[in-house]
Write a structure and sequence with these properties.
It contains 3 helices and 7 strands, in the order H-H-H-E-E-E-E-E-E-E. With 197 residues, the chain is of the alpha+beta class. Strand 1 (89-100) and strand 2 form a beta hairpin. The longest helix is centred in the first third of the chain and has 45 residues, at 18-62. Residues 17-54 form the TadE-like domain.
Length: 197
């Protein structure tokens, strides 16, 4: 018994390997913190750049300042540099405000999309945005969605995080249709006259 207690005492007093055990316990936390300090700021930066890209696209189409929508999509990528937003799903919409018995509603006049489905012309978007509740008002909308791809797959919260941003912009210089400035996206038609529906 004396020999056993002496060996137990020697075992408890030894410090060999303590650092390795401590490192093994702390290393996963340190690695997770390291990856988070890279991925979290990057994710927020990409989200901000996507929002700026949506604003740029809305501004360009509100002024009819494009030859083709490829130029508009390219402008969003240029604003997002140095990040690649080529996987972003983009929907551009020209909308009109209509007075209905239930109030002012926004309806799709024309729509175009890249890597997504355009909105159906004539469909209702929803209540008219505040500040645009005037019968016959026109605005454009750029919607951008993109799934974030983390640099390190160790931060589970960021894997599959989807950025979604929508920017509304009043029509600034459209084609004059029925005395109103209209933005007509390629393949679309001007907004219909208010039918009260």
């Amino acid at each position: 018994m004396t020999g056993l207690s002496r060996h137990l005492h020697l075992f408890a007093a030894r410090r060999d390997g303590v650092s390795a055990v401590e490192f093994a316990l702390i290393a996963p936390i340190l690695i997770l913190l390291f990856t988070a300090t890279i991925d979290v700021p990057r994710a927020f930066s990409i989200n901000r750049r996507l929002a700026s890209g949506a604003g740029t696209m809305a501004d360009l189409i509100s002024r009819n300042d494009f030859q083709s929508l490829d130029e508009v999509y390219a402008a969003a990528q240029a604003v997002a540099e140095p990040y690649d937003v080529g996987t972003a799903r983009i929907v551009l919409t020209a909308a009109g405000i209509y007075r209905t018995p239930e109030g002012f509603v926004a309806k799709v006049c024309s729509s175009a999309a890249q890597k997504d489905v355009p909105r159906q012309p004539g469909s209702t978007i929803g209540p008219a945005p505040l500040g645009m509740r005037i019968d016959g008002a026109r605005y454009v909308m750029a919607e951008v969605k993109m799934q974030y791809r983390a640099v390190f797959r160790l931060v589970p919260v960021l894997n599959g995080w989807e950025f979604t941003t929508t920017t509304l912009w009043p029509v600034r210089e459209g084609k004059s249709v029925n005395g109103r400035d209209e933005v007509v996206l390629p393949g679309g038609r001007p907004c219909a006259a208010n039918d009260g529906a």
